[in-house]
Recover the amino acids of this structure.
C-alpha cells in the first residue's frame, strides 16, 4: 500500500505540504518559509499555539495522575498576561524550563492559551468555570468577561445556586446579581435542583437568610435537609438525623419554621427528627398558646417577590354577543428586552354576573411548550382581571418571542380588551406583542383575551 501511495505524495507541492502541516499547528521540520503563508501577526502567532517549535518553556498542567505537558513561548504569554510577564521578565523571575500548575485543568489552561495566542474564545458548559478560574489566576480580563457572559446566558434554576457560590468566589458581582434574580423568582425549582446540594455552607446560609426567596417554607426546610444529607456524605458521616442537625449547625435557625402553616409543620418539620423536643414543643405552643415562648427561629414569613403586571390593553368592553369561547384558543405572542419570569396571566371573566371558569393556560417557545396548567378561577362579574398561575415561574430569555395561550370553559359572555398596544413599558422591562397563528378565537394585538402577563423581574 505504501508503494501505491508514493507517486501520489510526489504530486503534492511543498507549499501544499506546508499548508497542511500549518493547518494542524505543526510547521514542517526545517520549513523556513511558513511565515509567508500568513499575512497577519495574529495568524502567525496562532501557528505557535500548543506547538513545540521555538518553545522556551513548558507547563505540566493538572493534578497528579492527570497531567498534560504544554509547550509555551514566553514572549507571547507575557504579552497576553501580566502574571506571565512577571513570571518570565519581572524582578523575581525564575528561569525554569518546566512549570507545574496542579490547580488548573488542562482543557481550561489550553482554552486560555488559545485566547492568548489566537485571539479566539472557545467555551463549553463543562469547562467554563475552570476556564474562568484560569483567566482570573493569570489576569486575562477579556477572557474572564467572556466566561461570565457565557455563564449568564446559560443561567437557570438548575445551576443558579452553584453559580452563585462560584460568582462570590470569583468576585463577580454582576453574575451574583443575576443568580439571585433566578433564585428569588424560581426559588422552589432552584432549591430542588441537584446543584443546591453541592453548594458550600456559606452559600447555604446566604440563601436561607434571603428575605425575597419566593418559596414556601416547607420547600426551604426540605431543601436544607437534602443539603445536610449530601454534606454528611462529603464528611463521611452516616446521614442520621443527628448528623444532619450537626452539619446544619446554626443555619437551621435561618429556616423560618414557625412561619409554616401549623398543619405543614405538624406533618413535616415536627416529625423530621432534626428539631429537638423542646424546639418542637415551643413551636407548637407558639402556634396555639396565647402566651408565646421565645424562639431562636425567625417567626416572620419571608416577603418574597411582588409580582408585576404588564397590561396590554387601554380599555375593556362587553357586548351582548361577545366574548364567546366555545373551547377555542386565545393566543398572543410577546417578547421582553430583558430576562423576566412569567408566573401567570391575568384573564377577563364573565360580563353578566359571577361565574366560575376552567382554563388551560400554556407558554410556548418556537412551538414547544415550556409550561402549561389546568386551573380554575372565579369571576365576580366585574371588568377586573383574574390571575391564573403556572406551577412555577417560567424564565423568559430576552429578545425571544414566546406564545401565551388560554382556552377557557365557562360563561360564554365575557369582557374583552380593546385598544391594544404593540409595545408596553412596565418598570424596567419593555414588552412587545404580535399576533399569534395559534389564536382561533379572535384574540390579537388590538383586542381580545389575555390582557395581562404576570411576571417577576
Amino acid at each position: 500500500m505504501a508503494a501505491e501511495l508514493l507517486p501520489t505524495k510526489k504530486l503534492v507541492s511543498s507549499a501544499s505540504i506546508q499548508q497542511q502541516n500549518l493547518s494542524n499547528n505543526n510547521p514542517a521540520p526545517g520549513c523556513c518559509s511558513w511565515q509567508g503563508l500568513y499575512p497577519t501577526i495574529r495568524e502567525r502567532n496562532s501557528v505557535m499555539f500548543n506547538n513545540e517549535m521555538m518553545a522556551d518553556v513548558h507547563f505540566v498542567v493538572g493534578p497528579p495522575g492527570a497531567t498534560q505537558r504544554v509547550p509555551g513561548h514566553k514572549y507571547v504569554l507575557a504579552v497576553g498576561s501580566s502574571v506571565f510577564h512577571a513570571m518570565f521578565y519581572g524582578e523575581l523571575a525564575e528561569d525554569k524550563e518546566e512549570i507545574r500548575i496542579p490547580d488548573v485543568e488542562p482543557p481550561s489552561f489550553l482554552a486560555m492559551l488559545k485566547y492568548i495566542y489566537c485571539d479566539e474564545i472557545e467555551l463549553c458548559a463543562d469547562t467554563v468555570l475552570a476556564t474562568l478560574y484560569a483567566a482570573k489566576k493569570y489576569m486575562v480580563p477579556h477572557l474572564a468577561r467572556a466566561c461570565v457572559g457565557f455563564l449568564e446566558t446559560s443561567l437557570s434554576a438548575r445551576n443558579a445556586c452553584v453559580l452563585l457560590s462560584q460568582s462570590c468566589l470569583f468576585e463577580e458581582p454582576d453574575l451574583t446579581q443575576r443568580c439571585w434574580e433566578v433564585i428569588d423568582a424560581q426559588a422552589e425549582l432552584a432549591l430542588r435542583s441537584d446543584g443546591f446540594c453541592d453548594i458550600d455552607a456559606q452559600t447555604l446560609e446566604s440563601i436561607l437568610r434571603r428575605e425575597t426567596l419566593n418559596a414556601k417554607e416547607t420547600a426551604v426546610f426540605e431543601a436544607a435537609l437534602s443539603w445536610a444529607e449530601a454534606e454528611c456524605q462529603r464528611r463521611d458521616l452516616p446521614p442520621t438525623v443527628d448528623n444532619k442537625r450537626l452539619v446544619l449547625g446554626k443555619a437551621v435557625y435561618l429556616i423560618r419554621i414557625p412561619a409554616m402553616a401549623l398543619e405543614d409543620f405538624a406533618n413535616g418539620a415536627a416529625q423530621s427528627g432534626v428539631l429537638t423536643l423542646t424546639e418542637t414543643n415551643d413551636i407548637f405552643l407558639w402556634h396555639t398558646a396565647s402566651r408565646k415562648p421565645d424562639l431562636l427561629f425567625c417567626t416572620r414569613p419571608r416577603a418574597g417577590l411582588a409580582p408585576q403586571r404588564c397590561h396590554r390593553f387601554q380599555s375593556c368592553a362587553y357586548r351582548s354577543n361577545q366574548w364567546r369561547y366555545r373551547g377555542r384558543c386565545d393566543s398572543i405572542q410577546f417578547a421582553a428586552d430583558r430576562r423576566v419570569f412569567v408566573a401567570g396571566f391575568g384573564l377577563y371573566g364573565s360580563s353578566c354576573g359571577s361565574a366560575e371558569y376552567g382554563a388551560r393556560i400554556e407558554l410556548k417557545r418556537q412551538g414547544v411548550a415550556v409550561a402549561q396548567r389546568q386551573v380554575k378561577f372565579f369571576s365576580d362579574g366585574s371588568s377586573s382581571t383574574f390571575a391564573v398561575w403556572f406551577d412555577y415561574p417560567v424564565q423568559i430569555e430576552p429578545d425571544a418571542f414566546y406564545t401565551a395561550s388560554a382556552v377557557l370553559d365557562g360563561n360564554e359572555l365575557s369582557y374583552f380588551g380593546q385598544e391594544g398596544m404593540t409595545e408596553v413599558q412596565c418598570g424596567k422591562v419593555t414588552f412587545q406583542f404580535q399576533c399569534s397563528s395559534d389564536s382561533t378565537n379572535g384574540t390579537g394585538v388590538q383586542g381580545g383575551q389575555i390582557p395581562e402577563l404576570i411576571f417577576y423581574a
The longest strand covers residues 368-379. DSSP finds 16 helices and 15 strands in the chain. The first helix runs from residue 2 to 11. Confidence is low (pLDDT under 50) at residues 1-24.
